[in-house]
Amino acid sequence: MTALAACVSNAPPRLKQTPKPDTASAVNTQLGIEYLKQGDLNLAKEKLERAEKENPRDPNVHMALALLNERLREPSRADAEFREALRLSPKNPEITNNYAVFLCQSKRYEDGVKRFHESANNPLYRTPEAALTNAGVCLREAQRFAEARADFQNALQIRPNFAEAAYQLSDLDFAQGHTKEAAERVDQFLNYFNATPELLLLRVRIARASGDRLVTERNARRLRNDFPESEQTRQLADVLRNPG
Fold first, then answer.
1. Backbone angles phi, psi at 85, to 5 degrees
2. Spatial separation of the C-alpha atoms in residues 41 and 36, rounded to whole Å
3. Per the structure, how many domains does the chain have?
4. In this structure, are residues 4 and 33 in contact, taking their beta carbons and an 8 Å threshold?
5. Relative to the CA of 96, which of 16, 50, 106, 123 has its CA 20 to 30 Å away?
6. pLDDT exceeds 90 at position 135
7. What pLDDT, on the 0 to 100 scale, is given for residue 73?
8. Domain that includes residue 76, residue range
9. Is 187 a domain residue?
């Protein structure tokens, strides 16, 4: 559920003059995030700690430090950095959303869902459907299925072509034995919007469970043809081998 938003080039930029402290902090924050994305935690730590010294009041620095500490398996430090970032920028929807991801992954479901809903209701947040879908995933993990379904449905009301919400809602229905409803929803989505490998594989699983060989073969073929390199295509052989 979490994504790193900042992106910089692999090589540090060449600066013609000594940057101002806030500019230096921004550069080191971007570099730290990029090293974090590449899995180089030592360099990420070095850059982000330097950024914090240069500008300790930048909420983006503290959010990046939170993500770093999460990767370092230091949940208490990660939580403290998220809280500091929100103290400095309490209405920042990106920080709120990333903190919600952390809370849900830490099984602090109630707090996580609350934060996701804050993001979804923030007019500055550009993708409320994503926050609602993440809230639904969190609620499903907590086995609060009716509430999860409601959040997935609300996400689709905001953006009917949001494939992740369609997948999550259909997968939940299928898992709970509502096979017909799941099949109808996936078919409707695939008829009107762009297919995704997740939805195509789910449709294969549903068809297998229903004993519908024609639909199974049609969607399996589409998955292979449209997404030959996807993880779902690699999983397809096992799905077809096992009984529905």
1. -60, -40
2. 6
3. 1
4. yes
5. 50
6. yes
7. 95
8. 1-90
9. no
